[in-house]
Amino acid sequence: MRADRLPHIFCSGCGNGTVLNCTLNAVDQMGWKKEETVFVSGIGCSSRAPGYILADSLHTTHGRALAFATGIKMAKPELHVVVLTGDGDLAAIGGNHFIHACRRNIDLSVVCMNNMIYGMTGGQVSPTTPRTALSTTTPYGSAEPAFDLCELAIAAGANYVSRWTSFHVKELTRAILAGLRIPGLSFIEALSQCPTNFGKRNKFRQAMDQVEYFKTHGILIEKVQRLREEGKDIPPDAIVLGEMIRRNRPAMGVRK
Ligand SMILES: Cc1ncc(C[n+]2csc(CCOP(=O)(O)OP(=O)(O)O)c2C)c(N)n1
Ligand code: SF4
């Protein structure tokens, strides 16, 4: 960490620190040197994370983290490039970059801190805000269906896709580690609590209430597949967790 950049901007109880910790733990397990690793982000609370890491980092413009990361990989494929992003950054303004980075299957590791809201700007609706959830721009509850970021990444062509939460620290770390190892685009979605702008409007009075929700509503993808085969219903508020895909499509920007 860059000690001179502390204290960080995250509110107390924010899940971003946990996801950052899991990411750095996985990078550490890979043994990657800081001289050969670049962290890239757009704009948002989550996107502030690379600024605290003692390595080369690019804090770019909102939504464009993947465009900058693509440029780095094309110019210097020998570098490890890790993108830290938020649901707004990745799937709203940056949605187009997301699908094309997955389609091209560029050798990037993308960790999305999905707090289901625009945190930094005060709590506006995002593409992953659950239907009926309250935000400053949906005071009567969101009427829109939410994006499933993992399904999107799979459909667009990413080689590795996994979802965990800030409660599942070990599983999330293992998933990021798997993503770092696999050539091509790895997408790891980390559901993360935002007590300040999501939690307080949506009946999570304390930060830990939302972490508890992640714990009690998580359901493994294998169980979902079994239930589907048996023709049984999946609870509508279930959070599907685990490794969604691991494959070997041709990738771009892979280290020689
Ligand atoms: C081009 C542009 N449009 C809008 C903004 C304002 N803005 C800053 S952060 C943000 C959304 C952040 O949401 P998310 O990416 O989910 O990150 P979080 O803060 O929730 O971690 C927006 C709309 C901006 N900085 N630049
Ligand atoms: S506003 Fe939300 S996402 Fe941003 S630092 Fe605070 S708790 Fe975290």
Helices and strands, with pairings:
Blueprint: H1 16-30, E1 37-41, E2 56-59, H2 65-75, E3 80-86, H3 87-91, H4 95-104, E4 109-114, H5 149-156, E5 160-165, H6 169-181, E6 186-191, H7 207-217, E7 218-220, H8 221-229, E8 239-246
Parallel strand pairs: 1-2, 1-3, 3-4, 4-6, 5-6, 7-8
Antiparallel strand pairs: 5-8
Helix pairs in contact: 1-6, 4-5
Residues 10-11, 14, 16, 45, 115, 119-120, 194-197 line the site of iron/sulfur cluster (SF4).
Structure, described:
It is a single chain. With 256 residues, the protein is an alpha/beta fold. The protein has a single domain, classed as Thiamin diphosphate (ThDP)-binding fold, Pyr/PP domains (Rossmann fold), CATH 3.40.50.970. It has helices at residues 16-30, 65-75, 87-91, 95-104, 149-156, 169-181, 207-217, 221-229, and strands at 37-41, 56-59, 80-86, 109-114, 160-165, 186-191, 218-220, 239-246. It has an eight-stranded mixed beta sheet, with helices on both faces. Helix 1 packs across helix 6. The longest helix has 15 residues, at 16-30. The radius of gyration is 17 Å and the shape is globular. The two termini are 29 Å apart. The model has no long low-confidence stretch (mean pLDDT 97). The structure holds thiamine diphosphate (TPP) and iron/sulfur cluster (SF4).
